[in-house]
Specification:
about 350 residues, alpha+beta, disordered C terminus
Length: about 350
């Protein structure tokens, strides 16, 4: 994780402690954003499944392809309504401040403006579809201003109905409850029932979702490694060995259990488990890095998992130790760079 030069200068008095705090804050934030995307997807699915509407949840990040070029399209959430109509949803947890990168991020909705194949229908097509963009509340005003400006200037071209909503997690620590709110702000879809629901706001309690959807923990986007590690430690390792003791396993064995546990979001053609082998491999190697596992055979990816070690707050434990490892390398590199700079200066002084 890159540390800004300005941060390095500010933190020079006590680099290790301050860099650790910055690193942990950034990584916990990344984990939290991924978690909120999962919760948002779950909440929308639960709401539409338990309320009689003309609109239904189809899947999270299924395999869709453009009709004209057969390029893969990756909507975050897919809805369908009426006889044969749909909605492709793009979920954003944050946006870059740099305008060049912001334009690039918003231009992603252009890919939803073409006809796509992959829907829950006999021919995997629909007669028409709309686009739903879900923006984080804190960014909404800035984003909508730039989006409207670029739509008017033709820098972003959208040929389908575009509905824009804001969403966010509202925390009530006193009650021990968290809520997700989704609120329509601009545009609409062709589904009147969905429009009415969004206009009146969708809210749902996060804690209640976990009771019904314990196996839904990943979207198709690659999660932060710490996030995967947390899920393996809490969900998969207990399934591999019920006793809290060290045990031997492999990536293949972990993957087999994880495939069964983290079931697909839907029954669409081509759907697969939420988790990926590469994510598990990264997580297992990172467990080794922080002393919670040991690689006994790199060729066969076999590990001893040190589950006998007592870990109270799993996320904080993992994040803190991974950050310490990163910072140790950065401090070492900074020291080497300083040594080289001093050496160069001494050479110059000779002349």
């Amino acid at each position: 994780m890159p540390i800004l030069k300005s941060e390095a200068l500010i933190l020079s008095a006590n680099p290790e402690e301050n860099l650790l705090n910055i690193c942990m804050e950034k990584r916990i934030s990344e984990n939290d954003r991924y978690y909120q995307t999962v919760v948002l997807t779950l909440g929308l699915k639960d709401y539409l499944n338990h309320n009689e509407t003309n609109c239904r949840f189809v899947s999270a990040e299924p395999r869709f392809y453009t009709v004209s070029t057969n390029n893969e399209v990756k909507p975050d959430i897919v809805l369908q309504y009426g006889a044969n109509n749909g909605v492709l949803c793009e979920v954003k947890t944050s946006f870059p401040n740099n305008e060049t990168y912001l334009l690039r991020a918003l231009k992603q909705i252009e890919k939803y403006s073409t006809d796509v194949v992959g829907w829950d229908s006999p021919d995997r097509k629909v007669d028409s579809h709309d686009i739903l963009l879900l923006c984080p509340m804190m960014d909404y005003d800035r984003i909508i201003t730039k989006l409207n400006e670029w739509l008017k200037a033709g820098k972003i071209k959208v040929t389908k109905n575009l509905c824009i909503c804001e969403w966010g997690m509202i925390l009530y620590p006193k009650w021990g409850k968290d809520f997700i709110l989704i609120r329509k702000r601009q545009g609409k879809t062709n589904c009147e029932e969905l429009n009415k629901i969004l206009e009146s706001n969708i809210t749902f309690e996060v804690q209640k979702l976990h009771l019904n959807y314990e196996q839904c923990k990943f979207t198709r986007k690659e999660p932060p490694t710490e996030y995967t590690m947390r899920q393996l430690w809490l969900d998969i390792f207990p399934a591999l060995n019920k006793k809290i003791e060290d045990f031997t396993t492999s990536v293949e064995e972990v993957l087999e259990i994880a495939y069964k546990y983290y079931i697909p979001w839907s029954n669409l053609e081509g759907e697969f488990s939420q988790i990926r082998k590469t994510w598990i491999k990264k997580a297992m190697d990172s467990f080794c890095e922080i002393g919670l596992a040991e690689n006994t055979s790199k060729a066969k990816s076999k590990y001893i998992v040190h589950r006998s070690k007592r870990v109270n707050n799993v996320e904080e434990y993992i994040v803190k130790r991974l950050c310490k490892s990163v910072i140790k390398e950065k401090i070492k590199k900074m020291s080497l760079e300083n040594t080289e700079a001093e050496k160069d200066q001494r050479t110059l002084d000779l002349y």
